[in-house]
């Protein structure tokens, strides 16, 4: 009987450790699902895109980008293979609030990418600016200011300069 309980517990633990990518392939994560459902589905030990880790809190660094003007948010797991873009977000995940992080925020899953750069490019393409020279100017300004193209800081700097011009 002890073996049965041990085996049942082992199956329960292993099934809870499925990666977001596996759950995406299995159809458990779907485009259009609410962030609450997404976070509930991806709840796992160490691979949860919705959960802040002790290291996140210690380093004061979250695993997400929020674009309030666009009402979009990008989140990823601690060892990212996928980057999840949510739309209609007015309440993003609060990464600074370690221990009270599950099911925070709102929005719905819009798209999934395999790189942060692709996700950022997708979100920033939603900016309704027809003047491409403004975008190029903002990118050059941020690069001269020392930000590395493709980084979160570069994307934030570029957006701030586009909004300000």
Can you describe what's shown?
This protein has 165 residues and is α+β, with helices and mostly antiparallel strands. The protein has two domains: 19-114, no CATH class; 127-165, no CATH class. Helices cover 41% and strands 12% of the residues. It has seven helices and four strands, in the order ααααββββααα. It has helices spanning 2-16, 20-25, 35-41, 54-58, 116-124, 132-144, 152-164, and strands at 64-67, 72-76, 83-87, 108-113. Strands 1-2-3-4 form a four-stranded antiparallel β-sheet. Helix 6 crosses helix 7. The radius of gyration is 18 Å and the shape is elongated.
Q: How many DSSP H or I helices? A: 7
Structural class computed from helices and strand pairing: alpha+beta
H and E order: HHHHEEEEHHH
Instruction: Name the beta content range.
Output: 5-15%
Distance between the termini: 70 Å
Summarize the amount of helix as a percent range.
Answer: 40-55%
Topology:
Blueprint: H1 2-16, H2 20-25, H3 35-41, H4 54-58, E1 64-67, E2 72-76, E3 83-87, E4 108-113, H5 116-124, H6 132-144, H7 152-164
Antiparallel strand pairs: 1-2, 2-3, 3-4
List keywords for this structure.
single chain; 165 residues; alpha+beta; 2 domains; four-stranded antiparallel β-sheet; 7 helices; elongated
Explain briefly what this protein structure is.
The protein has 165 residues and is α+β, with helices and mostly antiparallel strands.
């Amino acid at each position: 009987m002890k073996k049965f309980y041990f085996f049942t517990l082992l199956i329960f633990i292993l099934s809870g450790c499925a990666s977001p990518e596996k759950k995406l392939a299995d159809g458990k994560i779907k485009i259009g699902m609410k962030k609450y459902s997404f976070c509930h589905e991806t709840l796992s030990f160490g691979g949860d895109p919705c959960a802040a880790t002790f290291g996140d809190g210690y380093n004061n660094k979250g695993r997400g980008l929020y674009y309030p003007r666009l009402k979009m948010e990008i989140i990823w797991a601690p060892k990212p293979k996928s980057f999840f873009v949510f739309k209609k977000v007015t309440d993003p995940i609060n990464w600074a609030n370690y221990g009270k992080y599950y099911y925070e925020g709102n929005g719905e899953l819009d798209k999934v990418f395999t790189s942060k750069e692709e996700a950022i490019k997708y979100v920033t393409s939603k900016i309704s600016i027809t003047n491409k020279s403004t975008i190029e100017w903002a990118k050059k300004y941020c690069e001269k200011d020392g930000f590395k193209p493709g980084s979160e800081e570069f994307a934030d700097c570029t957006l701030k300069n586009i909004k300000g011009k």
